[in-house]
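pinned: reference chain
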Amino acid sequence: MTAEHPYLQTFRGSFSGVLRWPQLDALWQQVLTTPQEGWYVYAVGEEPPTQTLTGDALGKVIRELDELLHREHDEDYCGIVYTDSMTNPAYIKVFDPNNLGSTCGSSGNPPLPGWILSKMQPINLPAAMPQPGNRRRWWHNLFNHAH
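pinned: its structure tokens
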């Protein structure tokens, strides 16, 4: 899997942060009122889904995610959800409030989102993302010294 994969290109694309809870409510409403194309709901680290969700199934996931974010990110701002568009979303990254690290990118290795909702079928994101350089060097050195 290369960086040229469309899902990975989109993942690394331009996103806007959802800063306020009312903005998140409006984003969820956009997702739920989108024509019945369906959304892939991917819990990063699990097997990527092959089927989309629509209607009640999608609504249940969004309600549960929203409740989790409000309960575990006890702030008066949101700031842990990012979307490619507030008015016509097709790709939404939701960071796990218990695994934030540095989502703003100031870290050289920001954490992966906890969940991604997308109209594009996901790939195995952890497998597609390169390991930090020091880990790659360590791994290569391990095998070079073993031979």
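why pinned: Residues 20 and 79 are 7 Å apart (CA to CA). The chain has one domain: 6-146.
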